[in-house]
Amino acid sequence: MANKIEELKKDIAELESLEKQVTRQRNKDILSIELRKLVSEVVKLEEQRSQTTLPAAASTNSLGATNKRYEIKLNNYAWDQTSKYVKFYVTLKNVHNLPAENIKCDFTHKSLELKVLDLDNKDYVLRINNLLKTILPEQSNWKLKTDMVIVNAAKKEVENWSHVTEWEKKASDAKNLPPPDSDKQADPSEGLMSLMKNMYERGDDEMKRTIAKAWTESQEKRTAL
User: Fold this and answer.
1) Pairing between strand 78-81 and 85-91?
2) Least confident of 24-28, 61-65, 193-197
3) Which tens digit of pLDDT belongs to each residue from 74-126?
4) Residue 78: CB atoms within 10 Å
5) Do 42 and 77 belong to one domain?
6) Of all helices (H) and strands (E), which one includes residue 154?
7) How far apart are CA 77 and CA 153, in angstroms?
8) What CA–CA distance (Å, rounded) separates 42 from 50?
9) What is d(CA 161, CA 132) in angstroms, rounded to the nearest whole number?
10) Does 117 map to a domain?
11) What stretch of H or E contains 21?
12) Which end of the chain is more exposed for a tag (fewer CB within 10 A), N or C?
């Protein structure tokens, strides 16, 4: 059983690493669901193991298993906005039964981090970085409702947010890029070149470096052939 628990923990660590790398929300949701399943399985196995130990050590092992909590990253939330706030709705069953000190939310001008501690022996964390626009940390807050935490991020400027993060907006803008010229569509390579050129001209420094690197590698492969 110990080996199985260790293998599951390795799987959890690998999934957490993958979750940090993926950018598409659907993939993040899939990884988050799988993480929860694995964490639940580890908790059950550790409880079973503690029940099979010697009576003298049973209470100590049980206490250790109870005190060890796993961090689960939250990716699912709903959001809307008013003229003053961008509101994030995070659903967690029985969260309203926690003491107030178990819920923390840290704000910066361009990010927020919600922590829900020791809910059914698990810690839940929602991190949102690179917010689309600047917020006011000192005027931001959170509220506890039945099975839900509402995070209110105070806007610095009274303006509408089209997306939550800068990355989401860039991804949306990329989808709306104009198609290649119709007279060049017969040649796929020319169409791709036109698209990359358009993205390069519109992109930020990071996107330009990425495209330039891809172009260089492509040219090197052609030369090698």
Assistant:
1) antiparallel
2) 61-65
3) 989 999 999 999 999 999 999 999 999 999 999 999 999 999 999 999 999 99
4) 11
5) no
6) strand 148-154
7) 14
8) 12
9) 7
10) yes
11) helix 2-21
12) C
Tokens standing for 212? 């330039």
Task: Classify residue 145: in a domain, yes or no.
Answer: yes
Total residues belonging to the chain: 225
For residue range 168-183, list pLDDT tens digits in order: 888 888 777 666 555 5
| Closest among 173, 158, 225 to 203, alpha carbons compared | 173
Query: Is residue 170, in this structure, part of any structural domain at all?
Result: no
pLDDT for the residue 97:
95
CATH of the domain at 111: 2.60.40.790
Determine if residue 147 is left, alpha or beta; phi over 0 gives left, psi from -120 to 50 gives alpha, anything else beta. left
Higher pLDDT, 101 or 48: 101
Q: Say if 169 falls within a structural domain.
A: no
Q: Give residue 137's domain range.
A: 70-163
Q: Are residues 56 and 86 in the same domain?
A: no
Q: What is the mean pLDDT of residues 206-215?
A: 73
Place of tokens 């922590």: 115
Residue 168: which of 126, 206, 129, 212 has the closest Cα?
Answer: 129
Number of domains in the chain: 3
